Amino acid sequence: MRLFGLSLRLRLVENSIESTRTRIHLRQPCQNNSTCLNDNTTIRGFNCNCLSGFNGTECQYDYRICQLRTCSYNGICYQSSNTTFTCSCNEGWQGVHCEIKMNYCKNITCYNQGVCQSLSSNYTCLCIGEYYSGRYCEIKSGKIVTLERVSKSFGYIAIIFLIGTAIFIITMDLLKYYFGIDPARKRLRPRKCVKKQKTIPVVQKFYYKSSLKKRSENSIVVIEETNI
Q1: pLDDT per residue over 194-211, tens digit each?
Q2: Structurally, what CATH architecture does the domain formed by 103-140 represent?
Q3: Which cysteine pairs are joined by S-S bonds (predicted)?
Q4: What are phi and psi of 7, to 5 degrees?
């Protein structure tokens, strides 16, 4: 009876061990694609064979050089050695971990007060209003060209006027201080003495014939005028 009881206990222990191993394999305690191996010498009854870069009793620690967050913005990490890596960045990003956005406007000049805007993979120049166009805002509209020509014309006229005024002032100074000629000074002309002429009296005589019948036909009226 004692032997029978002992053998029964051994079978129960073996069954419990087998059931434990079965539960362990079903649970898959080894992480990160590691291999689970039965080991009767350990309390757990198994060991995990970890892949390169993983460690721990269940391979739960990741010591790989290239991890999911090593390269930012969906960059691809390439392990060049056990301690170094290289990130292949997507378009528009740069840096060791692809963390720096590329500035495409660094060496770009937008004309006519245009503003350069960096895009994900290129750049564009934002022109002011509808007066400028083109990739670098270098094309001017007809209205702007006309205004520039008019302003230049007025500028040239003002410059010519100033130059003429300066030449006139310099010429006047040269005539005055080097040649003793002052054209701006008015010379007084001598007045001529005008003698008053005496008025000579003029005597005018008018003869009128009377047409009246009462008077004689030969009657004459004499009127004298004298100018003194």
Answers
A1: 555 666 665 555 555 555
A2: Ribbon (2.10)
A3: 50-59, 89-98
A4: -65, -35
